[in-house]
Write a structure and sequence with these properties.
Largest sheet of chain B: 7 strands, mixed
Order of helices and strands of chain B: EEEEEEEEEEE
Oligomer: heterodimer
Structural class of chain A: mainly beta
Largest interface: A-B, 26 and 22 residues
Radius of gyration of chain B: 14 Å
Distance between the termini of chain B: 40 Å
Largest sheet of chain A: 7 strands, mixed
Shape of chain B: globular
Helix content of chain B: under 10%
Distance between the termini of chain A: 36 Å
Number of helices of chain A: 0
Order of helices and strands of chain A: EEEEEEEEEEE
Strand content of chain B: over 45%
Structural class of chain B: mainly beta
């Protein structure tokens, strides 16, 4: 199985900050990485698909980049409503696998 | 609009089975895979596998082979996951999900079903 190593595990941030997190795949997954946001008590929500494509209705402060084995997710201007856990997932080959998540907390 | 409505919380004893449901609406049920994801409370997401209602084809992550069994009833547009031989480690939220149109990402999710395994 492909292992998705996500970092950091958590971040203490302030509103307005630029937030960057990473996912490293254990083998080449092309551009087949998605990013999800999960708020407490809710189902995950798709933000980015195929590494860099913003899903319908997702604010443009959320961006994704990368290909091959290294992927980056950025929130350019952190808002209070962005407090959540963020997960990457590779959809290049079965079984799909998730990163362990990055939890954003207020400083 | 696309909706995935999951069944309610389950409390089960070790060694028994539970059958979770995911009722789809707002689209042609047989045209999209239904994926299942596990999340233990306070933990990360774990991909279980999928069923394709169009032909009943299934795929299971190795870890869940023998644990989970997927079925689908096209007459009611409902996907099911049977979890057998339950242990406390099966206590978790279970989500069903579907891809969006033109994307590999899981754009649609059910609200999740909490399974609690306790004697």
């Amino acid at each position: 199985d492909i292992v998705m190593t996500q970092s950091p595990t958590s971040m203490s941030i302030s509103v307005g900050d630029r937030v960057t997190m990473n996912c490293k795949a254990s083998q080449n997954v092309g551009s087949n990485v998605d990013w999800y946001q999960q708020k407490t008590g809710q189902s995950p929500k798709l933000l980015i698909y195929k590494a860099s494509n913003r899903y319908t209705g997702v604010p443009d402060r959320f961006t994704g980049s990368g290909s091959g084995t290294d992927f980056t997710f950025t929130i350019s201007n952190m808002q209070a409503e962005d407090l959540a856990v963020y997960y990457c997932m590779q959809s290049n080959s079965y079984p799909y696998t998730f990163g362990a998540g990055t939890k954003l907390e207020l400083k | 609009q696309v909706q995935l409505q999951q069944s309610g919380a389950e409390l089960a004893k070790p060694g028994t089975s539970v059958k979770l449901s995911c009722k789809a609406s707002g689209y042609t049920f047989t045209s999209y895979y239904i994926y299942w994801v596990k999340q233990r409370p306070g933990q990360g997401l774990e991909w279980i596998g999928y069923i394709y209602p169009g032909n009943g084809g299934t795929y299971y992550s190795e870890k869940f082979k023998g644990k989970a069994t997927f079925t689908a009833d096209t007459s009611s547009s409902t996907a099911y996951m049977l979890l057998g031989s339950l242990t406390p480690e099966d206590s978790a939220y279970y989500f069903c999900a579907r891809r969006g149109v033109g994307t590999l990402g899981f754009a649609y999710w059910g609200q999740g079903t909490l399974v609690t395994v306790s004697s």
